[in-house]
Each structure stands twice: as C-alpha cells, then as structure tokens.
Design goal:
The chain starts with 6 loop residues before the first helix and ends with a helix. Helix 12 packs across helix 16, helix 13 packs parallel to helix 14 and helix 17 crosses helix 20. The strands form eight sheets. The chain has a seven-stranded mixed beta sheet. A seven-stranded mixed beta sheet has the order 24-30-29-28-27-25-26, sandwiched between helices. Strands 13-16-15-14-17-18 form a six-stranded antiparallel beta barrel. Helices cover about 30% and strands about 20% of the residues. With about 850 residues, the protein is an alpha+beta fold. Among the domains are: about 200 residues, Gyrase A, domain 2, CATH 3.30.1360; about 250 residues, Type I PLP-dependent aspartate aminotransferase-like (Major domain) (Aspartate Aminotransferase, domain 2, 3-Layer(aba) Sandwich). The chain has 22 helices and 35 strands.
C-alpha cells in the first residue's frame, strides 16, 4: 500500500518531518487474569517481570526449536493491562498457539481487541510536537523509548507508546478506540500536513524498517530460504528480545535459545567456529556498484557462496550538513541500494562481498548498520564507505609550530578574557594570583603518601622534598573543612568525576568489609537524579556508577531508580513521592546533585525519611556546580544531613580544576570505616601524582573564597535572579519557578525550541556569548536539546551586578533571535568587566607577586 506521493517521497518525508501510518492490520491481544504473568513468561522470550507499569518491550514468540513463530511487542498500560501486538499475517496462528498454551494455566483470559482498538503510528522528527498539540488531558510518555502513557485526544482515551517500526528516534504508536480512529487520523494530518507530515503506506514502512535493520516475518525470521527455520539469534534484535533470566523458568525454546546465545558470545569474543547451532546471521549489506538488490539474491565471497539476501531495495536518504551535534538535514537527497542478508556467521563488518543481481556479480560490503537512531530528532543514514572528517594537519616544523600555538593561545585568551561573556555555568576563571601560583614549584613533582598504622596513623610520604606540599595539604584540608562545615577532607583527586568514582569504589569496599575473601558484591540499589532531569553523568549507570552498582535480578537492568520530580516544576524533586517510594525500596545510596540545578536539594527532608532505618542509606551530595555556594544563602549540606559531599573546585568555587570529597564521620561511628575506604581508594586507587601545582593553587583559592564567600554568594544568586527576570521580560521562555525569580542558584535555563539548543548556542558564540546547549525535561537527548544553560558565577567575579545582568538580558535575547549587531555590542560591554573581584588586592601582595614572576 502507498499513497499518492509514492514510497520514496513517503520515506523522505518521514525522515525529515514525519509519516502517519495506519497499522490497524496488526493484531492486538489482551491477556488478563491472575495467571497472566506466568503464561507470558512461558510463551514469550523476554522477561515479562522486568516490565514496569507504563513500559513496553520487544519480544519473540519462540518455538521449542529456538526459532520464531512471530515477533511481538508487549505493552503494560498501568498496573494490570497487558497488550500484545503481533504481526497481521500471523494473528490466527499466534492466537491458536497462545490459546493452546494458556490451557495449562489457571485464571487466564485472552481477548482479541484487533477490531475494537485501532492502531496509528506517527513517526518522525516533528511527531512529538504535533502529537503534543493534540493532547487535551493526560500527557505524552517520557522521552525514552518504550515508555507509555494515557492521554485524551479528540475526546477519546488514547493509549500512547514511544515505539515504532521505522527506526525513527522520535516516534509514537497510538491505540485508539476504533470509532474515533478516523477523527484522530484526520486531525493529525490537519495539524502536521502544513509542516510536511504525510500519510505513509506499508511500502514506505518496509523501506524505513529495512534502513533501520529491523526484521520482517517471512524474510528475516520464520522459514529460511532453504525451507528450514531461522534461529532466533540470527536476528540482531534477539539481543534485546530474549532473556535467559532464571526467573523465567523453563519457557518454550529456552534450552535451544541458550545454546544459540553461547555461540553468540563466542562470535563476539572472536573465538567461534562454524556451528550448526547458529551457522548464519542476518547482516546489513550495502551495494557498491549500480544496481538494485532484491530478496533471494545470492551473496558470495570470492567464488564461495556465503548466503542470501532476505530483504533488499533501493532507498532514498537525506544528506546532512554541518558536523557533530549541529548536523542538520540539508536540501539534497540521494539513493542507495541496501539489503539485509542471511550470511555465514563468521563474516564480519567491512568484508567485501559480491551480490548476484540479474545474472551479474555486483560489488557489495557487509556494513555495521545502514543508519543510526541515537542522535534525535533525526535518523542518520550512514552510507557504505563513509569516512571520518579529516582534521587539518599542522604545517611547518619546530619553532613554526610553537609560534602558531602561542599566537592561537594568545588570541583565544584575549577573546575569552576581554571580548566575550563567559556564561558557561561549569567554568570559573581563577584569580591572577591563583593562576600564577599553580605553575610554580612543586608543579611536576611527586608527593605520594598514605597512612601507616605502625607509625601511629601518620601519613608517610614516598619521596623527599615534600615537607612543603605536606603543609599545603594540611592547610587546604583545614580551609575546605571550614568552608564545607565538616571534619574530613580528601583533596588529592584531580576532578569531580574522579571524586565520585572514588566514593563509589569506597562504598563497594565498605559494604564488603566483613568478609574480604568472598567475591565483592556491588551496591544493591541506588537512587539518583536521572540524567534526563539534569542529573550528573558520573552518577548514572552510563557513567562512573556503572562498575559499582548491581543488576536488578528482576528487571535485569542496573539497580538505579531516579528521584521523581514535581508535576508543576520538573526541576524540583517530589519529596512526597520519594516517601512513597521509600516505603517499598531499600536503597543503599542516595545521590543528590545535578548539573542542571535551579533549586536546593531536599537533603533535610529525605534524611528525616531514612533516619530510623538500620542500616541507613548513605546520603551523598555531588555539589559539582554549586560547591562555591555552600552556606546560608543556598544550602549547608552537612547541617542538613548529608554524609558525603563531592564536588568540582572550578565551577562556582574559585579554584583550579580539581575534585574534593568531604565527610563528617566521627572516629567512633561505624561509618568512619567508609572514610578509611575513601582514603585508600584515593591513593593508591585513583591517583599517584596528584598534580601538586593545581593543589597549591587550590589552597589560595580556598583562602580567597573563605574570605569573600558571604558577599560573593549573595551577589551570584542575586545576579542569577536578575538575569532570569530580564530574559523573561525580553520574551524568552525561562524555566523554573517565577515565584523565586526562576532560580535559586547561579544557573538560568532558557527553552529556545525543540532541537534548537545546539544551533542557538552556536549563534550566541558568534555573538561573543559563550554558554552551552542543554537537554531539558521532555527532550530525548543532548542532540535534541531544547534549552540553553546559562551561568552567572564567572562574570560575577569580574564585577557584574544585578543592573549589569539586566542590561545583558536584552542582548542575549537579540542574539538568540539572530540580530547581527550584537557581537560588537557584547565585546564593548565586556570591556567594563576586566578586573577580577572577590580576591585579594594585588597591590598589597605586589612584592610577592613580582618575586613569583621573577622565578620564571
């Protein structure tokens, strides 16, 4: 089926704007009754217990041979509503198979809702915006694949899923009451049509799924070209659709699937030999010569037949302009012949092959993929033979290269320090004396040391000539303890992320302290701020936490749960919901802190919730962005109940680029053993040479901030509020709570339009305003960032006050809207703010400064 535009135009429109598909031919089966989980675990390949309410999962219906009766999607709408979507042509046999197996399970009912519930797919970059405009009540799912929700559209209750069969990173499937389907369809086209969204048929759906490498029954699974059955693990999608969790028991096909998975592991490790268990696998193949490859074409390596094409055609694809996160679809498109092929399992990507097309052998190549979906909002086609952009190489030799480096460094320094507004919240220029001090001796030296019990717990240094640095470390610990309001400081770490990794490693060591002979156990459960809500990358399973947190045996995912956020303000944690979650969860570690932070964290409230627990979870606060704001004007973490504070010393803090850990355990407390672990994991675990030059600079920075903290912190927060209000008054969409002037920190978050953040941040840089683009709640990821993250700390140190930020606001707004005159105005504006404040008067230290300069 295709519409008037034709398959190629439908394909291109879906990739650039959006495609609307009527997929009501798919089967929709509801499984009800107390025995539904047991039945589904038995007949499906994925782990049904892992499915939380309002989640979906890809799965297979396997047979006893480890082949595939059908692939399917299982949706859990709310607590009890399980909906299984199967392929249209397989619905009768799937229904018969499920009914036959259900007879062995008590209290299970199967209902065929195919005729009662229509199914519409809206796929493509504009899908979220268009669908959002149709929502009258409820909400769209969270911006993660396989998330579900319920919403009211056109007066009907619609079940919404972030799923699809096109490879689009932004896509929805709607389950609509049949009597309302036509109205919903027409309304979506009415809204989306003017923006390029088109109705698309099954022909385009097939080319899109082929480009995305997704399997189709009868071609990539089911009967194979030789009349046998495709093994399930021949499909790449099997990796996400098959679970061998012990919790599933002995389900249909498990034994055969386990044998296939063992072969897959050997293939991944490069130690496999050809095996009848998994002799061939489905691989993407691209044709290099002109021609169109079709289903059934034979594939050769040299003269040896190695397989057969299962799906193939000529497809169009858009060319992208720009590079990196700012790549955008251009105006031009090309065509390419691509395929999926069932070929010898030992063949690897980039292997040259030949494909027989109409009696001729055409050159082809096994590729890793035909395109990628992780850079929302666009699917990125990746043609065969692509190459990384080549960076220009240096010209000249020796002194010429040195001269080029020095000239470029001076040019950059002049721009960043004299001609642009530095509004990146995670950056801070140290004072001139700190910058000078950090390159004096002991830069480049070593001063490794550790506690020696036999020396009455003294720190013993491994090198001579370290008396001075020992004194520096002691003084730095005292200054940081005074600033943070704690008793214990570890200052040897050279970054905030290293500080977090050190704490995570120490926590694992601490939880295994009672038995050092057994295999160490990881942290059982962690709660944190999810990265989509501004949480720190290092506190995610994708970051530093990954190696230290266990996999949940039920979900088979990392045992990390995100703090819930408030409906009225997603930048605040919902403490009431946290309390409800803690009624059923027993986390070992609570990680507070964000990189997108507008408000204090609810440390005191959550500490009260867990105070009586035995054992009580450790409360860690990663204050990387707000370390320099610790105090009565923002938040006092230890007074409020934090156990451990980590942070970067170069964001709102005045320091050189390093990391810090603070704690407040008394020596007679059991948790003091955790502090001992932190010290051991710092050295020899994390650092050897702990960068003594920047350590020395950090001491002076700590002295500075302790001397000026009150007036500096007051001014930073006042400036942020004034800046936020000025941006809002200029007509920008400032995030946060207007009742507190949008922010209570140094940061201001501005929404600039879906997936416009990268483009607008670059536009601001061209106007001499440096900030960073930011994914905000509702965005799929950083490439689809809708926001800008702005910070006032550095320019506050250069003397800006509330009136200055009020004057800057309209300039930023003009730059966002593309005004060409802003760059010169900003450069002139910056000339008023060249002298560092909140540091010691250099005149009083001039003789010592002069002496320092004379040492170079």
């Amino acid at each position: 089926m295709q519409y008037e535009a034709g398959i190629l135009q439908e394909h291109l429109a879906t990739r650039r704007f959006g495609g609307l598909f009527d997929v009501s031919h798919m089967g929709r089966l509801r499984i009800k009754g107390p025995g539904r989980i047991a039945l589904l675990q038995h007949v499906l390949s994925n782990n049904v217990e892992a499915l939380e309410p309002w989640e979906a999962q890809y799965t297979l219906i396997p047979n006893h041979n480890g082949a595939v009766i059908d692939d399917a999607y299982l949706y859990r709408f709310g607590q009890d509503d399980y909906l299984l979507v199967v392929n249209a042509s397989n619905r009768p046999k799937d229904w018969e198979h499920l009914q036959r197996e259900a007879a062995a399970f008590a209290d299970v009912t199967l209902e065929d809702h195919t005729d009662r519930l229509a199914m519409i797919a809206l796929q493509g970059p504009l899908a979220g915006r268009i669908l959002g405009s149709l929502v009258q009540g409820g909400r769209l799912p969270e911006p993660m694949r396989n998330r579900l929700s319920q919403a009211t559209m056109c007066g009907a209750d619609v079940l919404v899923a972030r799923t699809g069969y096109t490879g689009e990173p932004v896509g929805f499937e709607l389950f609509v009451p049949a009597e309302k389907a036509e109205e919903v369809w027409s309304t979506l086209l009415e809204i989306g049509g003017p923006d390029g969204v088109v109705p698309a048929g099954l022909g385009a759906r097939d080319t899109l799924r082929l480009e995305a490498g997704l399997p189709l029954y009868g071609q990539e699974f089911g009967p194979d070209p030789d009349g046998r059955e495709f093994p399930a693990f021949a499909m790449p999608m099997a990796a996400i659709g098959i679970s061998l969790s012990p919790r599933k028991g002995d389900y249909i096909g498990r034994e055969a699937l386990a044998r296939q998975f063992e072969q897959v592991q050997k293939l991944r490790m490069g130690i496999a030999e050809l095996s009848n268990v998994l002799p061939r696998r489905i691989r993407p193949v691209a044709l290099m010569d002109p021609g169109v490859v079709r289903h059934g074409a034979k594939v050769f390596v040299g003269q040896d037949p190695v397989g057969v094409v299962t799906s193939g055609t000529m497809i169009p694809y858009w060319l992208f302009e720009g590079e990196g996160a700012t790549m955008q679809i251009g105006q031009d498109n090309q065509r390419r012949s691509i395929a999926l092929a069932y070929i010898d399992a030992l063949l690897r990507p980039e292997t040259e092959v030949e494909v027989e097309v109409r009696g001729r052998r055409l050159r082809g190549q096994i590729v890793r993929w035909h395109g990628r979906s992780e850079a929302a909002p666009y699917f990125h086609a990746i043609p065969a033979g692509w190459q990384k952009p080549q960076r220009p190489t240096a010209v000249g030799r020796g002194v010429e290269k040195a001269r080029e480096l020095l000239e470029k460094s001076l040019e950059n320094h002049d721009w960043r320090q004299r001609r642009c507004m530095n509004l990146i919240p995670s950056e801070m220029t140290p004072s001139p004396l700190v910058r000078l001090l950090q390159v004096t001796d002991p830069v480049g030296r070593y001063a490794e040391h550790k506690e020696l019990l036999a020396a009455f717990e003294q720190e013993v240094f491994y090198y001579q000539g370290t008396d001075f640095i020992a004194w520096v470390e002691q003084r730095l610990a005292a200054e940081m303890a005074e600033f943070l309001g704690c008793s214990l400081i570890e200052a040897r770490l050279v970054s905030g992320q290293m500080a977090n990794t050190t704490v995570f490693s120490a926590l694992v060591d601490y939880r295994n302290r009672v038995d050092r002979r057994r295999e160490p156990e990881r942290l059982r459960l962690v709660m944190n701020n999810h990265i989509s809500m501004g949480g720190h990358l290092s506190s995610q399973p994708m970051g530093a936490l990954r190696d230290f947190v266990a996999k949940d045996p039920v979900s088979e995912r990392y045992a990390v749960v995100g703090f819930p956020v408030r409906e009225d303000n997603p930048y605040r944690i919902d403490v009431d919901e946290v309390a409800r979650m803690l009624d059923r969860l027993e986390p070992e570690l609570l990680i507070f802190g964000k990189s997108m932070v507008l408000h204090p964290e609810p440390i005191r409230e959550v500490r009260r919730l867990v105070e009586a627990r035995k054992p009580r979870p450790i409360i860690m606060y990663d204050m990387a962005h707000v370390l320099g704001l610790v105090g009565p004007h923002f938040q006092e973490p230890f007074a409020e109940g934090a156990d451990v504070v980590t942070g970067s010393t170069h964001k709102t803090f005045f320091g050189t680029q390093r990391g810090i850990i603070g704690a407040n355990f008394a020596e007679d407390e059991p948790e003091f053993a955790l502090w001992k672990s932190i010290r051991r994991r710092a050295f020899p675990g994390a650092v050897s040479n702990h960068h003594l030059g920047t350590l020395l600079g950090l001491l002076l920075a700590a002295i500075e901030i302790n001397a000026f903290r009150d007036e500096y912190q007051r001014q930073v927060i006042a400036n942020a509020k004034a800046f936020a209000r000025a941006l809002a008054d200029a007509g920008l969409d400032v995030q946060g709570d207007p009742a507190v002037d949008f922010t209570e920190t140094h940061q201001v978050i501005v929404r600039v339009g879906y997936a416009k953040g990268c483009e607008i941040a670059r536009r601001l840089e061209d106007a001499n305003i440096v900030c960073n683009y930011q994914a905000i709640p509702g965005d799929e990821g950083f490439t689809s960032s809708s926001g800008l993250r702005l910070g006032v700390a550095e320019m506050t140190r250069f003397g800006m006050d509330e009136d200055d930020f009020r004057a800057l606001g309209p300039l930023v707004a003009d730059a966002i809207r593309g005004s060409e005159h802003v760059a010169d105005e900003v450069a002139r504006f910056r000339q008023r703010f060249l002298t560092m404040r909140y540091c010691f008067d250099e005149a009083t230290l001039e003789p010592l400064k002069r002496h320092l300069l004379e040492t170079f």
